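so my prof wants the structure for this chain in the tokens format not the other one, which i didnt know existed until like an hour ago. anyway here's the sequence
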Amino acid sequence: MVMRWIVILTLLILSASSTSGQETEIPHEYLVKSKYLLNIPLFTEISSKTGGTSYIICLAGETPLESILASSKGIMIKNLPLSVRKVEELSQVGSCQMLFIASSERYRLQKLLADAHRQGIITISDMRDFTRSGGMIGLLTRDNRVTFDLNLSAAGRASISFSSHVLKLAHDIIK
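here's what i got, hopefully its the right format
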């Protein structure tokens, strides 16, 4: 049964997205990263966030993920339609269930992390050493493959837990 879930998660993450003219301009790496953003919530428990009429993924900074995720608006995540929002100010983070922090936001990373974790928001980024800097999920590209690291300590402080299926797929886990 566990192996079945691992295979399902892997296939969901690595599956190709629906074809659109926009994809030729976006590096394949970001198509795969968008799959992580859409699928990791399915294997995550957030005890402090309840209610809401949509599952909100927020994006801080400049990233190609914005256009990719925009085409996924309305898909169901945890029985809620997906909504994607760009955040400019810390005050906008509170409505998010997940916050992707682009590398351009390194200058305010600690403020974003502190605010997001205090509010029980999943933090994810592809910036270097993200999990070592206190983020929860760090997307990495190694040998032309996108994988991820997890920071369980940061997740625990935000009352977030990951299923064993996600833990088994992680490249590195910080406890």
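also thought this was worth mentioning. Confidence is low (pLDDT under 50) at residues 14-24.
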